[in-house]
Amino acid sequence: MDFPLILSAINSANAAFNMVKGFASVSTEYAVKEKTIELQSQLGTLLSQLVEIQLSMSNLAHENADIRNKIAAFVDWDRNVVPKYQLVNLAKGVFAYRLRNLPGDGEDEPEPEHHLCYGCFQNRRKAILQFSGYNNVGAILMCNECGKPIINHADKPPSWGPVSVSRRDPFPGY
Ligand SMILES: [Zn+2]
Predict the structure, then answer these.
(1) 73: which DSSP letter?
(2) What is the pLDDT of residues 88-131, one digit of tens each?
(3) What's the pTM?
(4) Cβ < 5 A residues, ion ligand 1
(5) Is residue 87 classed exposed, middle or buried when 0-12, 13-18 and 19+ CB atoms within 10 A define those classes?
(6) Which listed residue, of 30, 36, 70, 125, carries a Cα 20 to 30 Å from 15's Cα?
């Protein structure tokens, strides 16, 4: 990152340093020579301090850019992600965020129904839970961000579904 003002101050201090160096070599008078060398040393210190200031300003500018990006991501999350999702209870103690059924703006394709990982949502990470098969109680939904699976008890394995029992009375009239 460039700071024109600091850069020009460094150039000025550098020019002054070189000028003073010239004086010391042309002056024959001892007192002048001595003071000139002193001045040269002061200018050298000033120069290195300016270079340090430039470095800290550059570090601060990077930190500032970083913070601005983080704030922008926070604002974006609160404005564009949070309102679109609703905390739902898939089973006792099993939570996820479900895409709300909001009317689209007519421009974008509507998003397919999906759930986001609860833990990742708290960390402002949008991690869509991916179906990865069934266990004996329900569908396993995997979070590829944090690696945690959750079980959707409402989505039973196909063979596990309620057994259909014929309700027809085999003995009508009794
Ligand atoms: Zn997760």
Answers:
(1) H
(2) 998 888 999 999 987 766 667 788 999 999 999 999 999 999 99
(3) 0.62
(4) 117, 119-120, 127, 143, 145-146
(5) exposed
(6) 30
